[in-house]
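hey all, quick one before standup. I had two proteins in the batch that finished overnight and I want to keep them in one place so we stop losing track of which output belongs to which input. First protein below, input sequence then structure tokens straight from the run.
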Amino acid sequence: MRFILPVGLIATAFAIAPVRFDREKVLRVKPQDEKQANVIKDLAKANQLDFWYPDATYHVAANMTVDFRVSEKESQLIQSALDQNKVHYEILMHDVQEEVKKQFDVKEDFPGRHSYAKYNNWDKIGEKDERRKAIFMDCGIHAREWISPAFCQWFVHQATKTYGKNKIMTKLLDRMNFYVLPVFNVDGYIWSWTQNRMWKKNRSKNQNSNCVGTDLNRNFNVSWNSFPYTKDPCEETYRGPAPESEKETKAVTDFIRSHLKSIKAYITFHSYSQMLLFPYVYTSELPPNYEDLAKIAKVGINVLSIPYETNYTSGPTASTIYPTSGSSVDWAYSLGIKHAFAFGLGDKGKFGFLLPESQIKSTCKETMLAVTFIAKHILKHSS
């Protein structure tokens, strides 16, 4: 049994006032046709819309569920435009700042002690902790997805806690290595705690631009130059100046390459959407081992849904949601890691990126069941 928890770079937050989201709204829209989809795209050109799903205006299409955050100042204008064009919408959140505050709804039994039922800032996460088969797990590529680092911490805690007591977990830990990266995007994660809860990218400076940050899940060297919407440094989906240009991406890719002979699976955790996805991400073409991946994903979501009645969706990423470039899943798969998966953890949009702490335990418990199943499958079937 061996756990390795790589630690990223630490960024220092400047003493500036944190961004607030008072009376900002999150709207959910489902355009019925291309005309209505274009209404949303036109509104995005003229207003500051923070797209939660999909992650860019580029992907908005007919019959797609679209979630976006809008400022208090622009919300009335946006709602009026939607009404005028007979585009149906619902308000998921009436005051984002209130939802930010309500995330912390679990009382600490022992203040200051590390709790796996609460969201922990970077200072509290830190480090806890032959030819075996190994699984690489990463969390927190996107800074505002706090439930992802929470799960990685939970996984390590539960795995070590139950070792020697739980037969299945003991067998897995005796015969496999788990490389767990609890926070992929460290400086972005810190920034989301200290300055801007909705921050997504890392905090790297961009040459010839005042806009900060790269989307680390567009920075991997696979189909990196496929989509024009990733070229703008001011966009949330900016791919970076070159593949693996970011220190975080380079550290992970170097680590995986150096352990490639033993790594049989790559799993990354995101939020929100309740999905278990697999390659390809950049094209709707099916991977050679599609049937195997589809079967694993389908059984995996059944394993977690039966006891908790949580409704997950599974499938290849591009056709299940939308295609994107430079993703970690496609990159891992292209290296020969034929079991590459991406979890979209809870929920389906009521809380979005602001899932309350009171739902951490149930989310982690059900996800643990699916990850354990995948690990058992890898152990049994990988050569």
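OK second protein, same deal, sequence then tokens:
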Amino acid sequence: MSGQSLTDRIAAAQHSMTGSAISKAVCKATTHEVSGPKKKHLDYLIHCTNELNVSIPHLADTLLERTATNSWIVVFKALITTHHLMMYGNERLMQYLASRNTLFNLNNFLDKAALQGYNMSTFIRRYSRYLNEKAMSYRLAAVDFTKMKRGADGVMRTMNTEKLIKTLPIIQTQLDALLDFQPNSNELTNGVINTAFMLLFKDSIRLFAAYNEGVINMLEKYFDMKKNQCKEALEIYKTFLNRMTKLSEFLKVAERVGIDQGDSPDLTQAPSSLLEALEQHLASLEGRKLKELSTASRYVHHKMLFGSH
């Protein structure tokens, strides 16, 4: 210790105290009690992500260590705590999680010992894949799609064509991982999985909003795109229509378990004539002929897409 100044010693003591306090809070948030993590422990950990003297790698590693246990309850709650901090904590945590080569490695997780172990282990594997994908999206796009500015002057509505065509598939992949959670309402049987589902529901609404705005922007630009861009855009749009169906099934489950649907998006499908107009335009660029459509149908996408935007 002789080489250290008094300030160094105080700083080290503060850091180790903070470190042990973090470990303690993580342990308390991830107890064997079959209920979601307590708000006071989550609030403390959110506060920690905003403190400059807190080591974000230490906080993240402490959470990751909790997923190395055999108990589905502890592992599920560690994932929930991580998800909660991704949503409400300082962006430094998201940046760190996105920078790691591996995050959760739970593809083979199985708790055979506990009541509900088999069933809940399935959801743990799916949930961990979604959180990995959420971090990967951030790594690829350097933005959290659930937190970006929305509206007519928002990020997705003002993005250029090239970036849109690169970004929309990243959103699609993240939404796919979320929708793969796939619970039936009768499987949401305890406070742990219910808490996870609530966080996923919130992410799904915000993620879809960014996705929808990006697709609207893409369709507005479609008739001015180059041939190869039109081709990619058409595939993105077809995938989008398919995801709307899957999302509406996910939201029905939320409705059945009593989650307030006030935030839910309007998933009214655009008329099939819009898809036909897009296909017709691409065919004309490629020198192919499809059945003739009225010129007007090519330009009505502004009004037809999910109501007026």
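Flagging for whoever picks this up: The chain has two domains: 23-144, 165-308. DSSP finds 13 helices and no strands in the chain.
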